[in-house]
Each structure stands twice: as C-alpha cells, then as structure tokens.
Backbone:
C-alpha cells in the first residue's frame, strides 16, 4: 500500500491539506489501477510544469493534471473538454472499483464527479457528443480509448449524495 506524505506548509488551511491529500490519493489510485490518461496536456499546462519532475515524465504529467482537475486545483489552467471528460470517466471507474471506502471519501468522489459531469455536459453541443462539432471522438482520444465501465464487474456505489460539512469548500492553490 502506498503512503502519502504531505508538505507541512499546506496544513495552514485544512481545506488545502484535504485537497492535496485527495489529489495525491487519486494519483496513487491511477498507479494501482494502471490508469494511464490519454488526454493531451496543453502547451500552457506543459509550460506550468516545465520546471518540475513532471516535465521529464509524460505519464506522471498526465496523471497529475488529471488528479488536479478532479480536485478542482486551479493550477491546471484551461482544461480541455477531453481532459474534463477523462476526469469524469476516471472518477466513474474509481467509484465502480469501490476505491472510496469511507462515507466521506465516497461523498467527495461523487461530488467531484457530479460537478465535472455538469461542466462536461454544459460544454457539449445539442446531441450530446463530447467532441467538437459533434464529430465522433478521434482515435486515441480519452472517450474513444476508454469505454465507460472499463472496470465492469466492480460494485456500483450506493447512497452517495451531499458531502459532509468537512468536505465543503475549495482549496486555493
């Protein structure tokens, strides 16, 4: 089992600490599930991470971008529709796999999923296609590469609704 170590500086605000903890947990889950994001980072995102270890590791870069999108970390500027869709699909896979075990974890993952799903659905043209112009997803895109239910057979989450008060709020980056 992986261990998450959080920089003590983020403990000045408990919301920041939780955001960092969930972000790191999602990256660990991606590794354990062998989940490799396929959505291409933007030039702006690559520039932001250019002075980090992520600039030398494409898989780690894509995973950190996806995890940060999932926790609404505003350090990931202008996520693409494909990245947002992939975040929704990843959170669905996480829930199907039964990864969130406590009610708080389930609530946080469900709420993040629901909020991202609203963003994705509001960016789609009439007809519901996530691809620009209503075209089918391009080969290798997040939607094309990963069918919904990729972890079929995992239990469906139950009773996921509003998060507890401690999970409310957003973290400032």
Residues:
């Amino acid at each position: 089992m992986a261990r998450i170590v959080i920089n003590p500086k983020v403990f000045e605000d408990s919301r920041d600490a939780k955001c960092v903890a969930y972000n790191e947990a999602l990256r660990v889950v991606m590794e354990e599930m062998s989940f490799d994001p396929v959505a291409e980072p933007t030039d702006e995102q690559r520039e932001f991470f250019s002075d980090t270890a992520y600039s030398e590791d494409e898989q780690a870069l894509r995973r950190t971008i996806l995890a940060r999108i999932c926790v609404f970390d505003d350090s990931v500027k202008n996520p693409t529709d494909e990245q947002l869709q992939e975040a929704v699909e990843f959170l669905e896979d996480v829930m199907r796999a039964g990864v969130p075990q406590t009610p708080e974890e389930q609530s946080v993952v469900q709420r993040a999923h629901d909020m991202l799903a609203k963003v994705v659905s509001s960016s789609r043209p009439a007809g519901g296609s996530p691809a620009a112009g209503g075209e089918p997803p391009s080969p290798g895109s997040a939607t094309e590469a990963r069918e919904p239910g990729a972890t079929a057979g995992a239990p469906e989450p139950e009773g996921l609704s509003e998060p507890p008060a401690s999970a409310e709020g957003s973290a400032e980056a």
About this structure: Residues 11-123 form one domain. The radius of gyration is 16 Å.
